[in-house]
Amino acid sequence: MAERIAILTGGKAGEPVAAKTAVALIRYRRDEVVAVVDPGFVGRDLAALMPVLNAPPVVASVEEATTLGATAVYLGVATAGGKLPPELKPAVLDAAARGLRIVSGMHDRLGADADVAAAASRSQAELVDLRAEALAERTVATGGPIGGAFRVLTIGNDCSVGKMVTAWELTRGLIEAGIDAAFAATGQTGMMLSGGGVPIDAVVGDFLNGAAEALVRRHAHHQVTVVEGQASLLHPSYSAVTWGLLAGSQPHGLILCCEPGRPHLHGRPSLAVPDPVRLAAVVRASAGEQSGCELLGVAINGRRGRDDPDRLRAERERLERELGVPACDVVAEGPGALVEVVRAAADARAADRPAADAP
Amino acid sequence: MAERIAILTGGKAGEPVAAKTAVALIRYRRDEVVAVVDPGFVGRDLAALMPVLNAPPVVASVEEATTLGATAVYLGVATAGGKLPPELKPAVLDAAARGLRIVSGMHDRLGADADVAAAASRSQAELVDLRAEALAERTVATGGPIGGAFRVLTIGNDCSVGKMVTAWELTRGLIEAGIDAAFAATGQTGMMLSGGGVPIDAVVGDFLNGAAEALVRRHAHHQVTVVEGQASLLHPSYSAVTWGLLAGSQPHGLILCCEPGRPHLHGRPSLAVPDPVRLAAVVRASAGEQSGCELLGVAINGRRGRDDPDRLRAERERLERELGVPACDVVAEGPGALVEVVRAAADARAADRPAADAP
What we know:
Two copies of one chain form a homodimer. Chain A is of the alpha/beta class.
């Protein structure tokens, strides 16, 4: 699916959490990204604003991006409630008028905007709404045995703490270690990276567990499936999605993602971020009680902690001690420590399992 | 919303669990029900087939129901995945051709069937899809304080164990005891009874917690809100809905519903029904850990137990002992015992609460 991508960030190029989709595309599909379109950041070095190396140029318009070869625009920001941000509309409209492919992960449909729909209709621009297909998802989970791949799910004590990045880096690390591992995307950014998956937070409630179960069944022929986690079981807004994914994907192992130093829950200034140890206890007593899934490791997002490395190290050691599993910062150090625990757990399960149950 | 209702049961009039919507309409909107349409059951006494008193007549066709005055047909069965059962189509089509109001709680839209849509268009029949509006639900839960009413949620260790009936009977009992209580419907049957509510299992994942929070905010001006529970936290298929409702409605108290003697999970012959004591522990360690909600009572569905009353009594005593709360069978005995514990808990909270927090 190689293409020539311009990423729209609509004024958020300097906010790596809001522009997390842009960050992921630049990190993991860099060869295909020709530019970021964000007029307020023209001439700035994105690598100084976002946790990326080798940043693409910033241009002022979709027109300029096309002179660099862009054939597609990707909406590079995540918004509360998945609304199409008004500040992105001019660029989206311009791209539609020029017949570019437009890829969006918003709950709002691109074509729901009459101007965009009309422009795309005239130019034959392809409008790709990654979350739209989720409404057609009508699988009811069986809860029955899945077999095949060892399943790992990333969980987090908040939104935007690194569940997608950890799952992606872990998958890459497992593959580099010679293991047949697959990344199972459950969100729009993961889908933009992998070209597959299901936007689980856009699935209707009754079919949420089923969408997760169907997703892992489709990956059962691999040795290891790494499922991208969503939100947090203790986030007030989106925890139904987290629970459905935990129940439906029937993970064998969990990687807990957290960002030490975060001042409050994402988008909820009055709510504290739960201690990862508390989250682990809640998950163990609920989803763990059901499926027997085990915590295998902790993924530390060191973004905020790098200013105070002693404190970050102390928190990491506390989590390793209290949770009894290794921790690592997959961006700073690579996923090696997590690759090892996942490989060991997958091997242990394969050894335990009767041959008849083999994939 | 008084109307003249014919209930369609499509061959399921003898199956009270499948026809649970019919049972609820006959129990709680009996004055408006003129007939049940189910050709295979003409002349049978429904009271011998379903747990209802004063059953309406069974007729063979929608045409006959109209001779009894029917102006509306209600789909009286619940199906896995909310699919429109093919055996109901002839009657639905007939009703559409006759211009009757048709009320459905299926995930499948009535108008998605081209024949039904065409017939309704010709006759101007009103097609009411209770679950359809849920897709427009786009509230993101805040997790912030709600205030006002004391909130009670019914939970269950399986689907179809009596969460709706318990919530309805409890609300009625509270009102009879002079308390300003309101029933907050979360499913199609509850909506058919109350004329309001939200079909929470049809809401998109990201907005599930939000739909529950918005529902209880709309009822905050009452003294007590009784929220109809959905599915079970330990049911493999639909537990995302249960979790979203538990988190979003921020209940103060829970009533645990169960049906002793049930051989396996609803629709899942290979899966055992979880012990209610186990469910209570999981809920306490997860949703309870978050919100501090407390188990107030147990609602025993005695349907299967009445053949062996000693065993039913022993199970009831065990649950009371192990859970430390009173149990009652709201259908056999009325909701008195639950009314008392809810009233006491609501009073205790009102006494604790600073005046500034009063509604």
